[in-house]
Predict the structure.
Amino acid sequence: MSKSKQIHISKEDRTLAKLASLDAKVYVYCGDRKTLQKFIEDADNEYFHYGDGTALSERKPDSIMSVNRNRTVNYPGYVGTLAFHHAEIVGERPVVRVDYRKYISGYKNFIYEP
């Protein structure tokens, strides 16, 4: 999936679980404090957590986070940050970059583009 590829998810089905269910490496970008807070709230409400079981509200997430099918969230680290900015594929899965503000606001195209 290229950076400009659109993914269709109805406004009613816009959850973190839906993003995590995509057959892709999904990175979520939260570009401001309000969006980051909403991401934390949504993650907690949908029972997403860090790999060690800690709720997102117990640690400060980064502006870029990865969401996974097993309802875990992780920091991308150096390599993940490079993948977020430059890769089209991680392993055998396409990279999907989600602008979370656009995603929760109902924009048709919610793919992050710098």
Observations:
- The chain has four helices and six strands.
- The CA atoms of residues 69 and 80 lie 17 Å apart.
- The chain has a mean pLDDT of 92.
- Helices lie at 16-20, 33-45, 77-86, 100-105.
